[in-house]
Design brief:
Chain lengths: 106, 170
């Protein structure tokens, strides 16, 4: 599944990934790829701007954290982000159910 | 210079000043993580960097995404201001300010050459002098009081006087 098909759902996927654990950008991308058995081919360049949008909206927070000699920007879900994930997840399930009903009827 | 360094340099150039530091640092870390992960799979650093660039997309496209969000306000009010402060604009602003300061210094130099020495603080006042009796009035007061009507045939002399004030500290 390539970037165009994921458009509009990227932020939901990132929130879901962060609900599991706080992570830095590269780890998020790798985790999403692994969880989808490689089917999710994220446009990696779109992940960082999306994380910025989520942070500006108050759904995630971030901070630099030392990892050996390197520093990584680690993202964490906020309470507001948890509520957002919950409502987005409900919306997604509704969409899948609705589309499924139509496809099965055709 | 490696491909990653070239990429990061292009990204830095394309981003507004206010957000480039964090964003470039984050993408630099992305490269480091990717190179480390690819090394575990037996891929060399140069090839790992090339693969990472393919996945990230062109630097200008990455910068454009961030700029679009900044300008739309998706990254907050500060983001809009930040997006406006690019290197080119900043250089232009500094140049204009430098020219304005230089011009101001030239004008001030010319004025100081005709004015009396002003060791502390010198203020210029426009005054009206009545040539008939030598009275000196502040120009505005003289006009309001009708001093000029005293003798319309004799025009008031308008002069600039310099008043120096000394500020003493206790």
């Amino acid at each position: 599944m390539e970037g165009d098909a994921l458009r509009g759902h990227l932020e939901l996927l990132l929130l879901a990934a962060l609900a599991r654990a706080e992570q830095h950008g590269y780890a998020l991308i790798e985790w999403l790829r692994a969880q989808s058995d490689g089917a999710l081919d994220l446009g990696e360049g779109s992940v960082y701007p999306a994380l910025r949008r989520l942070e500006a909206a108050g759904f995630v927070t971030s901070a630099w954290r030392a990892d050996g000699r390197r520093r990584k920007r680690v993202y964490r879900l906020t309470k507001r982000g948890e509520r957002r994930l919950s409502s987005e997840r409900d919306g997604w399930h509704d969409l899948v159910r609705t589309v499924g009903l139509v496809l099965e009827a055709s | 210079m490696t491909d990653a360094e070239t990429y990061l340099r292009e990204l830095r150039r394309a981003l507004p000043i206010g957000c480039r530091r964090r964003f470039v640092a984050e993408v630099r870390e992305h490269f480091a993580s990717a190179v480390a992960a690819e090394a575990e799979r037996g891929v060399g650093p140069a090839e790992a960097e090339r693969l990472t660039i393919d996945r990230l997309g062109p630097a200008h496209a990455l910068a454009d995404q961030l700029l679009t969000d900044l300008r739309s306000g998706a990254l907050g009010r500060f983001g809009r201001v930040s997006a406006a402060v690019t290197t080119t604009r900043l250089v232009a602003l500094v140049t204009v300010l430098a020219v304005a300061l230089a011009a101001g210094a030239v004008v001030a130099g010319k004025r100081s050459s005709t004015a009396p020495p002003a060791p502390q603080r010198t203020t210029g006042y426009a005054v009206a002098i009545n040539p008939l009796n030598g009275e000196v009035h502040p120009l505005l007061v003289a006009l309001q009081a009708g001093v000029r009507r005293h003798n319309s045939a004799v025009p008031l002399l308008v002069k600039r006087v310099w008043v120096s004030t000394t500020t003493t500290t206790p």
